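Worked example 3 (structure in, sequence out).
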Protein backbone atom coordinates (compact mmCIF):
# COMPACT_ATOMS: atom_id res chain seq x y z
CA UNK A 1 0.00 0.00 0.00
CA UNK A 2 2.68 2.47 -1.01
CA UNK A 3 1.80 6.07 -1.84
CA UNK A 4 -1.43 5.95 0.17
CA UNK A 5 -1.72 9.71 0.57
CA UNK A 6 -4.14 11.79 2.61
CA UNK A 7 -6.21 12.70 -0.45
CA UNK A 8 -6.46 9.03 -1.36
CA UNK A 9 -7.68 8.21 2.14
CA UNK A 10 -10.29 10.97 1.84
CA UNK A 11 -11.44 9.55 -1.50
CA UNK A 12 -11.81 6.04 -0.06
CA UNK A 13 -13.82 7.30 2.92
CA UNK A 14 -16.04 9.41 0.63
CA UNK A 15 -16.56 6.42 -1.67
CA UNK A 16 -17.72 4.32 1.27
CA UNK A 17 -20.05 7.17 2.29
CA UNK A 18 -21.53 7.05 -1.21
CA UNK A 19 -21.87 3.27 -0.88
CA UNK A 20 -23.77 3.82 2.37
CA UNK A 21 -26.18 6.24 0.66
CA UNK A 22 -26.53 3.76 -2.18
CA UNK A 23 -27.61 1.14 0.35
CA UNK A 24 -30.44 3.10 1.98
CA UNK A 25 -31.39 4.73 -1.34
CA UNK A 26 -31.85 1.36 -3.04
CA UNK A 27 -33.35 -0.71 -0.21
CA UNK A 28 -36.69 -0.11 -1.91
CA UNK A 29 -35.50 -2.00 -4.98
CA UNK A 30 -35.37 -5.25 -3.07
CA UNK A 31 -37.95 -4.89 -0.32
CA UNK A 32 -40.60 -2.28 -1.19
CA UNK A 33 -43.09 -4.71 -2.72
CA UNK A 34 -42.45 -7.30 0.00
CA UNK A 35 -43.21 -4.71 2.68
CA UNK A 36 -46.22 -3.22 0.88
CA UNK A 37 -47.93 -6.61 0.43
CA UNK A 38 -47.23 -7.60 4.05
CA UNK A 39 -45.08 -10.61 3.12
CA UNK A 40 -42.43 -9.44 5.60
CA UNK A 41 -42.37 -6.94 8.42
CA UNK A 42 -40.37 -3.83 7.52
CA UNK A 43 -37.44 -4.33 9.91
CA UNK A 44 -37.14 -8.02 9.09
CA UNK A 45 -37.16 -7.21 5.38
CA UNK A 46 -34.33 -4.67 5.54
CA UNK A 47 -32.21 -6.93 7.78
CA UNK A 48 -32.58 -9.77 5.29
CA UNK A 49 -31.75 -7.47 2.39
CA UNK A 50 -28.64 -6.11 4.13
CA UNK A 51 -27.27 -9.60 4.75
CA UNK A 52 -27.77 -10.71 1.16
CA UNK A 53 -26.29 -7.47 -0.19
CA UNK A 54 -23.11 -8.27 1.71
CA UNK A 55 -23.03 -11.82 0.33
CA UNK A 56 -23.65 -10.60 -3.21
CA UNK A 57 -20.68 -8.24 -3.04
CA UNK A 58 -18.33 -11.24 -3.08
CA UNK A 59 -19.86 -13.09 -6.03
CA UNK A 60 -18.39 -11.16 -8.97
CA UNK A 61 -16.14 -8.24 -9.99
CA UNK A 62 -17.29 -7.78 -13.59
CA UNK A 63 -19.22 -4.56 -12.93
CA UNK A 64 -16.38 -3.19 -10.79
CA UNK A 65 -14.03 -3.70 -13.72
CA UNK A 66 -16.42 -1.85 -16.02
CA UNK A 67 -16.23 1.19 -13.73
CA UNK A 68 -12.49 1.05 -12.98
CA UNK A 69 -11.23 0.07 -16.42
CA UNK A 70 -13.85 0.73 -19.07
CA UNK A 71 -15.68 4.04 -18.58
CA UNK A 72 -12.83 6.57 -18.39
CA UNK A 73 -9.10 6.63 -19.12
CA UNK A 74 -7.67 5.60 -15.75
CA UNK A 75 -4.14 6.73 -16.63
CA UNK A 76 -5.12 10.41 -16.73
CA UNK A 77 -7.28 10.53 -13.60
CA UNK A 78 -6.17 12.11 -10.30
CA UNK A 79 -7.66 11.13 -6.91
CA UNK A 80 -9.20 14.63 -6.69
CA UNK A 81 -11.26 13.82 -9.79
CA UNK A 82 -12.70 10.73 -8.08
CA UNK A 83 -13.49 12.80 -5.00
CA UNK A 84 -15.35 15.40 -7.09
CA UNK A 85 -17.31 12.64 -8.84
CA UNK A 86 -18.39 11.19 -5.50
CA UNK A 87 -19.57 14.61 -4.29
CA UNK A 88 -21.94 14.87 -7.26
CA UNK A 89 -23.24 11.35 -6.74
CA UNK A 90 -23.80 11.68 -2.98
CA UNK A 91 -25.67 14.98 -3.22
CA UNK A 92 -27.97 13.66 -5.96
CA UNK A 93 -28.69 10.52 -3.92
CA UNK A 94 -29.59 12.58 -0.86
CA UNK A 95 -31.79 15.04 -2.77
CA UNK A 96 -33.82 12.31 -4.48
CA UNK A 97 -34.11 10.41 -1.20
CA UNK A 98 -35.45 13.55 0.47
CA UNK A 99 -38.32 13.82 -2.03
CA UNK A 100 -38.85 10.04 -2.12
CA UNK A 101 -37.95 9.50 -5.78
CA UNK A 102 -36.29 6.19 -6.73
CA UNK A 103 -33.51 7.48 -9.00
CA UNK A 104 -30.42 5.55 -10.01
CA UNK A 105 -27.44 5.64 -7.66
CA UNK A 106 -25.43 3.97 -10.40
CA UNK A 107 -26.10 6.72 -12.90
CA UNK A 108 -25.42 9.36 -10.25
CA UNK A 109 -21.99 7.82 -9.70
CA UNK A 110 -21.23 7.52 -13.39
CA UNK A 111 -22.56 11.00 -14.11
CA UNK A 112 -20.33 12.48 -11.42
CA UNK A 113 -17.35 10.54 -12.76
CA UNK A 114 -17.97 11.65 -16.35
CA UNK A 115 -18.43 15.30 -15.39
CA UNK A 116 -15.34 15.42 -13.18
CA UNK A 117 -13.25 13.61 -15.80
CA UNK A 118 -14.29 15.99 -18.57
CA UNK A 119 -13.51 19.00 -16.34
CA UNK A 120 -10.08 17.55 -15.57
CA UNK A 121 -8.90 15.87 -18.78
CA UNK A 122 -11.40 16.76 -21.51
CA UNK A 123 -13.96 14.74 -23.45
CA UNK A 124 -11.29 12.45 -24.86
CA UNK A 125 -10.77 10.83 -21.45
CA UNK A 126 -14.32 9.38 -21.51
CA UNK A 127 -14.75 6.14 -23.45
CA UNK A 128 -17.89 6.91 -25.44
CA UNK A 129 -18.38 3.37 -26.73
CA UNK A 130 -18.43 1.94 -23.18
CA UNK A 131 -20.76 4.72 -22.06
CA UNK A 132 -23.27 3.91 -24.80
CA UNK A 133 -23.11 0.10 -24.81
CA UNK A 134 -22.72 -0.59 -21.08
CA UNK A 135 -24.56 2.35 -19.51
CA UNK A 136 -27.02 4.21 -21.76
CA UNK A 137 -28.48 1.27 -23.70
CA UNK A 138 -29.03 -0.81 -20.53
CA UNK A 139 -30.58 2.25 -18.88
CA UNK A 140 -33.29 2.36 -21.56
CA UNK A 141 -33.66 -1.38 -22.09
CA UNK A 142 -33.72 -2.53 -18.45
CA UNK A 143 -37.08 -1.02 -17.35
CA UNK A 144 -38.73 -2.05 -20.62
CA UNK A 145 -37.50 -5.65 -20.49
CA UNK A 146 -38.24 -5.99 -16.77
CA UNK A 147 -41.67 -4.36 -17.20
CA UNK A 148 -42.78 -6.60 -20.04
CA UNK A 149 -41.49 -9.69 -18.22
CA UNK A 150 -43.30 -8.70 -15.02
CA UNK A 151 -46.56 -7.99 -16.87
CA UNK A 152 -46.50 -11.42 -18.56
CA UNK A 153 -45.45 -13.12 -15.31
CA UNK A 154 -48.31 -11.43 -13.43
CA UNK A 155 -50.90 -12.61 -15.94
CA UNK A 156 -49.45 -16.12 -15.82
CA UNK A 157 -49.54 -16.09 -12.01
CA UNK A 158 -53.22 -15.20 -11.96
CA UNK A 159 -53.96 -17.89 -14.52
CA UNK A 160 -52.24 -20.48 -12.33
CA UNK A 161 -54.18 -19.32 -9.27
CA UNK A 162 -57.64 -19.44 -10.83
CA UNK A 163 -58.51 -22.89 -9.51
CA UNK A 164 -56.47 -22.69 -6.34
CA UNK A 165 -57.83 -21.82 -2.92
CA UNK A 166 -57.53 -18.06 -2.50
CA UNK A 167 -55.89 -18.02 0.93
CA UNK A 168 -53.53 -20.90 0.14
CA UNK A 169 -52.49 -19.30 -3.15
CA UNK A 170 -51.91 -15.98 -1.42
CA UNK A 171 -49.65 -17.62 1.18
CA UNK A 172 -47.75 -19.43 -1.55
CA UNK A 173 -47.13 -16.24 -3.51
CA UNK A 174 -46.02 -14.45 -0.34
CA UNK A 175 -43.46 -17.18 0.29
CA UNK A 176 -42.33 -16.93 -3.32
CA UNK A 177 -42.12 -13.17 -2.99
CA UNK A 178 -39.82 -13.45 0.03
CA UNK A 179 -37.53 -15.77 -1.94
CA UNK A 180 -37.52 -13.51 -5.00
CA UNK A 181 -36.89 -10.42 -2.83
CA UNK A 182 -33.87 -12.19 -1.39
CA UNK A 183 -32.71 -12.85 -4.93
CA UNK A 184 -33.05 -9.16 -5.78
CA UNK A 185 -30.97 -8.27 -2.71
CA UNK A 186 -28.31 -10.74 -3.74
CA UNK A 187 -28.35 -9.34 -7.27
CA UNK A 188 -28.12 -5.80 -5.90
CA UNK A 189 -24.95 -6.75 -4.06
CA UNK A 190 -23.43 -8.22 -7.21
CA UNK A 191 -24.17 -5.02 -9.16
CA UNK A 192 -24.34 -1.90 -7.00
CA UNK A 193 -21.75 -2.77 -4.36
CA UNK A 194 -19.29 -3.41 -7.15
CA UNK A 195 -19.65 0.13 -8.47
CA UNK A 196 -18.08 1.47 -5.29
CA UNK A 197 -15.41 -1.22 -5.52
CA UNK A 198 -14.68 -0.03 -9.04
CA UNK A 199 -14.49 3.64 -8.06
CA UNK A 200 -12.15 2.90 -5.12
CA UNK A 201 -9.97 0.73 -7.35
CA UNK A 202 -9.84 3.55 -9.91
CA UNK A 203 -8.75 5.95 -7.15
CA UNK A 204 -6.07 3.50 -5.98
CA UNK A 205 -4.73 3.25 -9.52
CA UNK A 206 -4.81 7.04 -9.90
CA UNK A 207 -2.96 7.45 -6.61
CA UNK A 208 -0.35 4.84 -7.47
CA UNK A 209 -1.39 2.47 -4.66
CA UNK A 210 -2.14 -0.44 -7.03
CA UNK A 211 -1.05 -1.30 -10.54
CA UNK A 212 -3.22 -0.38 -13.56
CA UNK A 213 -5.74 -3.03 -14.71
CA UNK A 214 -5.85 -4.52 -11.20
CA UNK A 215 -8.95 -6.22 -9.82
CA UNK A 216 -10.38 -4.78 -6.59
CA UNK A 217 -8.34 -5.84 -3.53
CA UNK A 218 -10.06 -8.01 -0.94
CA UNK A 219 -10.23 -5.18 1.62
CA UNK A 220 -12.03 -3.02 -0.96
CA UNK A 221 -14.61 -5.76 -1.62
CA UNK A 222 -15.19 -6.29 2.12
CA UNK A 223 -15.48 -2.60 3.02
CA UNK A 224 -17.80 -1.84 0.09
CA UNK A 225 -20.00 -4.81 0.97
CA UNK A 226 -20.23 -3.75 4.62
CA UNK A 227 -21.02 -0.12 3.74
CA UNK A 228 -23.87 -0.95 1.38
CA UNK A 229 -25.22 -3.55 3.83
CA UNK A 230 -25.27 -0.99 6.68
CA UNK A 231 -27.10 1.52 4.51
CA UNK A 232 -29.60 -1.14 3.45
CA UNK A 233 -30.22 -2.15 7.06
CA UNK A 234 -31.11 1.43 8.02
CA UNK A 235 -33.69 1.46 5.21
CA UNK A 236 -34.62 4.24 2.81
CA UNK A 237 -38.18 4.41 4.04
CA UNK A 238 -39.21 7.40 1.90
CA UNK A 239 -38.37 5.62 -1.33
CA UNK A 240 -39.82 2.33 -0.05
CA UNK A 241 -43.14 4.15 0.38
CA UNK A 242 -43.04 5.49 -3.18
CA UNK A 243 -41.99 2.20 -4.75
CA UNK A 244 -44.35 0.02 -2.73
CA UNK A 245 -47.49 2.19 -2.68
CA UNK A 246 -46.95 5.27 -4.82
CA UNK A 247 -46.66 3.60 -8.25
CA UNK A 248 -49.42 1.01 -7.98
CA UNK A 249 -51.23 -1.20 -5.48
CA UNK A 250 -49.69 -4.65 -5.48
CA UNK A 251 -51.06 -8.02 -4.46
CA UNK A 252 -48.77 -10.98 -3.58
CA UNK A 253 -48.99 -12.42 -7.11
CA UNK A 254 -47.84 -9.12 -8.56
CA UNK A 255 -45.09 -8.67 -6.00
CA UNK A 256 -43.72 -12.12 -6.76
CA UNK A 257 -43.79 -11.49 -10.51
CA UNK A 258 -42.15 -8.06 -10.17
CA UNK A 259 -39.33 -9.24 -7.91
CA UNK A 260 -38.55 -12.34 -9.96
CA UNK A 261 -38.45 -10.42 -13.24
CA UNK A 262 -36.20 -7.70 -11.81
CA UNK A 263 -33.80 -10.20 -10.23
CA UNK A 264 -33.43 -12.06 -13.52
CA UNK A 265 -32.59 -8.88 -15.42
CA UNK A 266 -30.11 -7.66 -12.78
CA UNK A 267 -28.26 -10.97 -12.47
CA UNK A 268 -27.99 -11.30 -16.25
CA UNK A 269 -26.55 -7.79 -16.52
CA UNK A 270 -24.05 -8.43 -13.72
CA UNK A 271 -22.83 -11.53 -15.52
CA UNK A 272 -22.31 -9.50 -18.72
CA UNK A 273 -20.59 -6.64 -16.89
CA UNK A 274 -23.32 -4.09 -17.61
CA UNK A 275 -23.48 -1.30 -15.04
CA UNK A 276 -27.24 -1.60 -14.81
CA UNK A 277 -29.50 0.53 -12.68
CA UNK A 278 -31.33 -1.75 -10.27
CA UNK A 279 -33.74 1.13 -9.66
CA UNK A 280 -34.74 1.21 -13.33
CA UNK A 281 -35.18 -2.55 -13.42
CA UNK A 282 -37.30 -2.79 -10.27
CA UNK A 283 -39.39 0.29 -11.11
CA UNK A 284 -40.10 -1.11 -14.56
CA UNK A 285 -41.09 -4.47 -13.14
CA UNK A 286 -43.40 -2.87 -10.55
CA UNK A 287 -45.19 -0.89 -13.27
CA UNK A 288 -45.39 -3.99 -15.45
CA UNK A 289 -46.90 -5.97 -12.58
CA UNK A 290 -49.43 -3.19 -12.03
CA UNK A 291 -50.53 -3.36 -15.66
CA UNK A 292 -50.54 -7.16 -15.66
CA UNK A 293 -53.48 -7.49 -13.26
CA UNK A 294 -56.99 -6.91 -14.55
CA UNK A 295 -58.24 -3.75 -12.96
CA UNK A 296 -54.71 -2.80 -11.89
CA UNK A 297 -53.47 0.66 -12.78
CA UNK A 298 -50.24 2.64 -12.63
CA UNK A 299 -50.19 6.14 -11.15
CA UNK A 300 -48.62 7.80 -14.13
CA UNK A 301 -48.12 11.19 -12.49
CA UNK A 302 -45.79 9.54 -9.94
CA UNK A 303 -44.15 7.56 -12.73
CA UNK A 304 -43.65 10.73 -14.77
CA UNK A 305 -41.84 12.46 -11.90
CA UNK A 306 -39.69 9.38 -11.58
CA UNK A 307 -38.87 9.38 -15.31
CA UNK A 308 -37.86 13.04 -15.09
CA UNK A 309 -35.52 12.22 -12.19
CA UNK A 310 -34.00 9.40 -14.24
CA UNK A 311 -33.35 11.73 -17.14
CA UNK A 312 -31.76 14.37 -14.90
CA UNK A 313 -29.53 12.01 -12.93
CA UNK A 314 -26.57 11.74 -15.31
CA UNK A 315 -26.38 15.42 -16.33
CA UNK A 316 -27.11 16.78 -12.83
CA UNK A 317 -24.48 14.61 -11.14
CA UNK A 318 -22.06 15.39 -13.99
CA UNK A 319 -22.57 19.13 -13.53
CA UNK A 320 -21.95 18.97 -9.77
CA UNK A 321 -18.96 16.71 -10.33
CA UNK A 322 -17.48 19.11 -12.88
CA UNK A 323 -17.97 22.11 -10.59
CA UNK A 324 -16.45 20.24 -7.66
CA UNK A 325 -13.47 19.25 -9.80
CA UNK A 326 -12.95 22.88 -10.85
CA UNK A 327 -12.71 23.86 -7.18
CA UNK A 328 -10.45 20.95 -6.13
CA UNK A 329 -8.14 21.84 -9.02
CA UNK A 330 -7.24 25.04 -7.13
CA UNK A 331 -5.23 23.06 -4.59
CA UNK A 332 -5.59 21.52 -1.15
CA UNK A 333 -7.69 24.40 0.13
CA UNK A 334 -10.09 23.85 -2.79
CA UNK A 335 -10.47 20.20 -1.83
CA UNK A 336 -11.14 21.29 1.76
CA UNK A 337 -13.84 23.71 0.58
CA UNK A 338 -15.58 20.97 -1.42
CA UNK A 339 -15.40 18.59 1.57
CA UNK A 340 -16.96 21.19 3.89
CA UNK A 341 -19.66 21.93 1.31
CA UNK A 342 -20.50 18.22 1.03
CA UNK A 343 -20.75 17.78 4.81
CA UNK A 344 -22.83 20.95 5.29
CA UNK A 345 -25.20 20.09 2.43
CA UNK A 346 -25.69 16.53 3.69
CA UNK A 347 -26.43 17.81 7.20
CA UNK A 348 -28.94 20.35 5.86
CA UNK A 349 -30.77 17.69 3.82
CA UNK A 350 -30.92 15.44 6.88
CA UNK A 351 -32.32 18.23 9.02
CA UNK A 352 -35.02 19.01 6.44
CA UNK A 353 -35.97 15.33 6.31
CA UNK A 354 -36.72 15.37 10.06
CA UNK A 355 -39.68 17.70 9.49
CA UNK A 356 -41.68 14.73 8.21
CA UNK A 357 -40.25 11.46 9.46
CA UNK A 358 -40.90 8.30 7.45
CA UNK A 359 -39.78 5.08 9.12
CA UNK A 360 -40.78 1.44 9.58
CA UNK A 361 -43.82 2.40 11.64
CA UNK A 362 -45.54 4.49 8.96
CA UNK A 363 -43.95 3.37 5.69
CA UNK A 364 -47.24 1.81 4.50
CA UNK A 365 -49.37 4.82 5.47
CA UNK A 366 -50.34 6.45 2.19
CA UNK A 367 -53.09 8.87 3.19
CA UNK A 368 -50.84 11.88 2.66
CA UNK A 369 -49.12 10.59 -0.45
CA UNK A 370 -51.88 8.79 -2.34
CA UNK A 371 -52.88 10.54 -5.51
CA UNK A 372 -56.51 10.93 -6.55
CA UNK A 373 -57.45 8.72 -9.46
CA UNK A 374 -57.51 10.50 -12.80
CA UNK A 375 -60.25 10.30 -15.39
CA UNK A 376 -58.61 7.47 -17.33
CA UNK A 377 -57.83 5.45 -14.19
CA UNK A 378 -61.38 5.83 -12.91
CA UNK A 379 -62.86 4.78 -16.23
CA UNK A 380 -60.66 1.68 -16.43
CA UNK A 381 -61.55 0.67 -12.89
CA UNK A 382 -65.29 1.03 -13.63
CA UNK A 383 -65.35 -1.15 -16.73
CA UNK A 384 -62.66 -3.73 -15.93
CA UNK A 385 -63.67 -6.69 -13.74
CA UNK A 386 -61.27 -7.97 -11.06
CA UNK A 387 -59.37 -11.21 -11.63
CA UNK A 388 -61.35 -14.44 -11.56
CA UNK A 389 -61.95 -15.72 -8.09
CA UNK A 390 -61.16 -12.38 -6.44
CA UNK A 391 -63.71 -10.74 -4.18
CA UNK A 392 -63.45 -7.01 -3.84
CA UNK A 393 -63.02 -6.09 -0.20
CA UNK A 394 -65.61 -3.93 1.39
CA UNK A 395 -68.33 -4.67 -1.23
CA UNK A 396 -71.41 -6.15 0.45
CA UNK A 397 -75.09 -6.31 -0.36
CA UNK A 398 -77.70 -5.92 2.40
CA UNK A 399 -81.50 -5.77 2.51
CA UNK A 400 -82.65 -2.92 4.69
CA UNK A 401 -84.95 -3.82 7.57
CA UNK A 402 -88.50 -2.42 7.41
CA UNK A 403 -88.92 0.84 9.22
CA UNK A 404 -90.99 0.54 12.38
CA UNK A 405 -94.30 2.39 12.38
CA UNK A 406 -94.28 5.48 14.54
CA UNK A 407 -95.97 5.16 17.89
CA UNK A 408 -99.36 6.91 18.29
CA UNK A 409 -99.40 9.42 21.07
CA UNK A 410 -102.32 10.81 22.97
CA UNK A 411 -101.60 14.25 21.69
CA UNK A 412 -101.42 13.86 17.89
CA UNK A 413 -99.16 16.18 15.98
CA UNK A 414 -99.07 17.18 12.37
CA UNK A 415 -97.51 14.53 10.10
CA UNK A 416 -94.03 15.32 8.79
CA UNK A 417 -93.69 16.83 5.38
CA UNK A 418 -93.15 14.35 2.59
CA UNK A 419 -89.58 14.12 1.34
CA UNK A 420 -89.11 15.31 -2.21
Amino acid sequence: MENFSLILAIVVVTALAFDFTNGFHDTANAMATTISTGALKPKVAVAMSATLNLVGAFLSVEVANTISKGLVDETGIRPEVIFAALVGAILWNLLTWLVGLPSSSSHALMGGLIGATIASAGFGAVHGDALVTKVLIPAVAAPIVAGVAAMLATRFSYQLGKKADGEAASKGFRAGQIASAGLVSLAHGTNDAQKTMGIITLALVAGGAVAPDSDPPVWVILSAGLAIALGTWLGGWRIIRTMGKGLTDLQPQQGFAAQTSAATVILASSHLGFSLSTTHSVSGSVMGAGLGRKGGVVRWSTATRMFVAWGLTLPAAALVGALAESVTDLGDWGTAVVAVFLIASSAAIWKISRREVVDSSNVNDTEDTQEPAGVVTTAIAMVTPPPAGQVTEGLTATIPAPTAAPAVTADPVAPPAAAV
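Notes: The mean pLDDT is 77. The chain has one domain: 6-383.
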